């Protein structure tokens, strides 16, 4: 039993005429007749009563007509749903990112994506970049917005933004009036950092070691706004991307650029290599390529 034969039968049954069905479907009468006979042979029943002047359905024909229409409707629905997916008009994306990246950049990204694909649902997982990488690798989420670099043998990587680290201090801090600060000048300071689940934690420590000292860490947090408030309370200093300063509003915070070479904050979107990416996810990633 083939769907093309069922389609032919339903066309004839809908019009109760081979002639009208042929005109409607643009399929010749002999082809329609052949398809109906083949369907009758496959099912082992007569579908039409051909003994009268006018064509009519048998009891078996009534059942096949009703169920056949439902089957074709479901088949058409599959085609429609797949077409929606291919056009990214439907679907779900599980996306991980550190809260800092979410605060600074995701609202604008989400707005642009929603304007184009309003029926796609995005579920967010706000976690440190290290945890996001693990979840992408394990297949628990579809993609992650993380701090680069990362493992290029495991992930597909699409860079999308770059920023400079700057020094955040209280306005009364002894370094606050300097135009620029060398990283080595911070060796006696107390640092307030993101906790160890965040890529920035190790990145700042590594940068300090390259400058010749091990930083003293007085506080760790998972929230950038808490870090800023601790600095405003004169409990330490930190290094954060410049774009955060534009988001925060505490008047007691002073931003000071670092001397060259600058510390770079590079971000990218990652997906796991050799895995299937949904159409909705592909369209999401394409936004970062523009």
Could you give the topology of this structure?
Layout: H1 3-15, H2 18-25, H3 29-43, E1 48-49, E2 56-57, H4 59-86, E3 92-97, H5 99-104, H6 106-116, E4 121-126, H7 129-138, E5 143-148, E6 155-170, E7 190-194, H8 199-210, E8 216-221, H9 224-232, E9 238-241, H10 242-247, E10 253-257, E11 264-272, H11 279-286
Parallel strand pairs: 3-4, 3-5, 7-8
Antiparallel strand pairs: 1-2, 5-11, 6-9, 6-10, 6-11
Helix pairs in contact: 1-2, 1-3, 1-4
Low-confidence runs (pLDDT<50, min 5 residues)? Answer: none
- By DSSP, the count of extended strands is 11
Report the major sheet. 7 strands, mixed
Helical run tally: 11
Q: What is the H-and-E element order?
A: HHHEEHEHHEHEEEHEHEHEEH
**Strand percentage:** 15-25%
Write down the domain tally: 3
Q: What is the CATH class of the largest domain? A: Alpha Beta
Taking Cα atoms only, what radius of gyration do you get, to the nearest Å?
Answer: 32 Å
Keywords: DNA-binding, Transcription, Transcription regulation
Pfam family, one: HTH_1
Family: Belongs to the LysR transcriptional regulatory family.
GO molecular function, one term: DNA binding
């Amino acid at each position: 039993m083939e769907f093309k034969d069922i389609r032919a039968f339903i066309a004839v049954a809908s019009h109760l005429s081979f002639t009208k069905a042929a005109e409607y479907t643009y399929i010749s009468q002999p082809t329609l007749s052949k398809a109906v006979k083949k369907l009758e042979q496959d099912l082992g029943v007569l579908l039409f009563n051909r003994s009268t002047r006018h064509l009519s359905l048998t009891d078996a024909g009534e059942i096949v007509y009703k169920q056949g229409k439902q089957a074709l409707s479901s088949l058409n629905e599959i085609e429609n749903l797949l077409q929606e997916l291919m056009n990214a008009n439907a679907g779900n994306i599980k996306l991980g990112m550190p809260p800092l990246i979410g605060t600074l950049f995701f609202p604008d990204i989400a707005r642009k994506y929603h304007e184009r694909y309003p029926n796609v649902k995005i579920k967010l997982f706000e976690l440190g970049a290290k945890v996001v990488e693990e979840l992408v690798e394990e297949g628990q989420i579809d993609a992650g917005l993380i701090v680069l670099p990362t493992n290029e043998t495991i992930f597909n990587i699409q860079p999308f933004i770059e920023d400079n680290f700057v020094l955040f201090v209280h306005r009364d801090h002894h370094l606050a009036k300097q135009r620029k600060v060398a990283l080595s000048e911070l060796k006696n300071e107390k640092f307030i950092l993101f906790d160890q689940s965040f890529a920035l934690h190790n990145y700042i420590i590594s940068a300090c070691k390259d400058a010749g000292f091990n930083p003293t860490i007085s506080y760790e947090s998972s929230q950038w706004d808490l870090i800023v408030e601790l600095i405003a309370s004169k409990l330490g200093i930190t290094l954060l991307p410049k774009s955060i300063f534009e988001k925060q509003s505490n008047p007691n915070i002073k931003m000071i650029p670092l001397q060259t070479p600058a510390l770079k904050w590079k971000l990218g979107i990652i997906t796991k290599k050799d895995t299937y990416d949904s159409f909705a996810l592909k369209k999401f990633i394409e936004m970062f390529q523009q």
